[in-house]
Amino acid sequence: MSDNEGRGAPSTEPLSVVNFEDVSFGYGEDRVLESVSFEILQGDFAAIIGPNGGGKTTILKLILGLLIPDEGRIRLFDSPSEEARKRVGYVPQYTLFDPLFPATVEDVVLMGRLGAKSRLGFFRREDRRIAASALKTVGLEGLEKRPFPALSGGQRQRVLIARALASEADLLILDEPTSNVDRTAEKEIYTLLGSLKGEKTILLVSHDTAVVSNLADTILCINRTLARHPGCELTGEDLGKLYGDDMKLVLHDIHNEASAASAKEDSTC
Ligand SMILES: Nc1ncnc2c1ncn2[C@@H]1O[C@H](COP(=O)(O)OP(=O)(O)OP(=O)(O)O)[C@@H](O)[C@H]1O
């Protein structure tokens, strides 16, 4: 699928999905974000990278209207965040899970349909069809009745992505979706995100600079202030500025390992 699919006809201006204008924010006296401006358009795959404490999660909370900026303006789908956040599917970081949590895979995916079910409070056949389709998209069809806690960490993350897809959200936000999964699961998740590119507007927070530079159209490097890069143009110098000079960039391109390796082999900042 091409990058432009999902953005409408070429003559139509792509819609603004997230727009930050000179946003500053602090939890107290200290500023966490300083005059941050960026825009994500419909169909974009944007990624936020940056060091621990750089302000990535704060940006997500501001987008969702859970925090209010001290200065500047935030628009979500050209509306105030509180009005538009139901159009966002949020995939949290992996968290420890109660092994006795009594939900099946289907139950978890159907949570994405909670806003859509019938007035009597039942899921409709259509809700179940959409949930099944979302599970198929993430490659987990057939596991509907499996207890959610019995899945591997990577499978659970894919179920949470299916839940976001089932909500038919217009923007998918994923906060470090591979932070606690093994390498194989990580690769599967990034392959899945690559397959959604162009179909959904995606905002990914990740520490994996190599994957991000291969997947994203736009990379937002945040460390209190913002530097913005088109995808694939992230240089060792950029990363050195962002993370400091000790960082070793680990490469593992999911789509084209050979070309990524030749382009960026052994990049060290
Ligand atoms: N509720 C809070 N109250 C006070 N300070 C906070 C709060 N939440 C975050 N901070 C501080 O704000 C800064 C930015 O935090 P944030 O969670 O946005 O960073 P991050 O880039 O997501 O980090 P990480 O990669 O470690 O998740 C950090 O210094 C953090 O300690």
Automatic annotation (TrEMBL):
InterPro entries for the chain: AAA+_ATPase (IPR003593), ABC_transporter-like_ATP-bd (IPR003439), ABC_transporter-like_CS (IPR017871), Metal_Ion_Import_ABC (IPR050153), P-loop_NTPase (IPR027417)
One GO molecular-function entry: ATP binding
Domain ABC transporter stretches: 18-249
Keyword vocabulary terms for this entry: ATP-binding, Nucleotide-binding, Transport
Top-rank taxon, per record: Bacteria
Family stated for the protein in its record: Belongs to the ABC transporter superfamily.
Classification via PANTHER family: METAL TRANSPORT SYSTEM ATP-BINDING PROTEIN TM_0124-RELATED
Name used for this protein in its record: ABC transporter related protein
Organism: Sediminispirochaeta smaragdinae (strain DSM 11293 / JCM 15392 / SEBR 4228)
